[in-house]
Amino acid sequence: xxATEREAAELREKSRMPDKAQxxxxxxxxxxxxxxxxALAKAYALRKFGGxxxxxxxxxxxxxxxxxxxxxxxxxIATYREHAHAxxxxxxxxxxxxxxxxxxxxxxxxxxxxxxxxxxSKNFLGGYGIVGGHIPLAAGTAFASKYRGDGRVTLCFFGxxxxxxxxxxxxxxxxxxxxxxxxxxCENNLYSMGTPLYRSLSVSDVSQKALAYGMARxxxxxxxxxxxxxxxxxxxxxxxxxxxxxxxxIRTYRFRGHSMSDAGxxxxxxxxxxxxxxxxxxxxxxxxxxxKMDEKDIVAIEDKVTAEIEEAVKFADxxxxxxxxxxxxxxYKE
Length: 334
Ligand SMILES: Cc1ncc(C[n+]2csc(CCOP(=O)(O)OP(=O)(O)O)c2C)c(N)n1
Ligand SMILES: [Mg+2]
Prior knowledge:
Shape: globular
Low-confidence stretches: none
Bound molecules: thiamine diphosphate, magnesium ion
CATH topology: Rossmann fold
Structural class: alpha/beta
Largest sheet: 5 strands, parallel
Number of helices: 12
Strand order of the largest sheet: 1-2-3-7-6
CATH superfamily: Thiamin diphosphate (ThDP)-binding fold, Pyr/PP domains
Distance between the termini: 73 Å
Strand content: 5-15%
């Protein structure tokens, strides 16, 4: 690259840089999600709740950057690894943690748990445990938006393990055929449980799947929240203005196991340590330093996040469980 080219690239980089307030917002969200999940892991170890718990630690820039492109009325639908998407869609740490603790103050009154976060008022439509099963649902909400002409966009998140599933192809095929306002985001963290990508897919470039359906596609690394925002914004614009779907593959990495019971025998410690060099949160902090935010202001964000999560855990701890007599209300009708 010549000096002039480098200068031009730097200028471009600068012009796309969001202002300090936006960067601070990203950092707050990513850090709150990280601290919330660390608190959940601790509570799980203390047996405050059971069942499945899939942590998103390492992938935070994807949910935060992607959801920052949306309007409140837009829909988001995700997998069982969805605490981050729920938080970034405006659900509080209190309602998420209380839900996992099985408390009546949780978003689903404690009846759903970790894999079934849901809040219709925020247009966060779950939380699904069946791999790939929610992808046709995303085509469905996007169809509803087009039919009603309400201008809403649906963002659908799933893992690399969804891509060989029939439901993925059914959802994507219909979205392309009917030109639906939906963005499919494959969070490719290279593993589905203990199975590496090369053992489940014949191609390593997941975005190529879009070609068969004549759909727009994109593919990039997901550790930079600003990059995620800008690239997803392009697809959201295409969905909103042209009613066209996009398949995006965002390469990322989970630092923890698939769920809480994962011995991690399918990857080396070195690989995991190497991936931590691209920690989205370290990078998000670095962006604030580069934007010349004072160290004390960055620490103030960090203190605020710590207080927010501590308060949420206390709230969940002290909340009551749903009254036993009310359990049947959600199963039977008088
Ligand atoms: C239809 C179906 N098959 C198998 C499972 C068991 N299962 C749960 S998570 C998972 C791996 C999915 O991996 P991926 O889609 O890459 O998402 P990630 O966990 O990496 O976020 C599997 C096979 C399931 N929940 N649903
Ligand atoms: Mg995966």
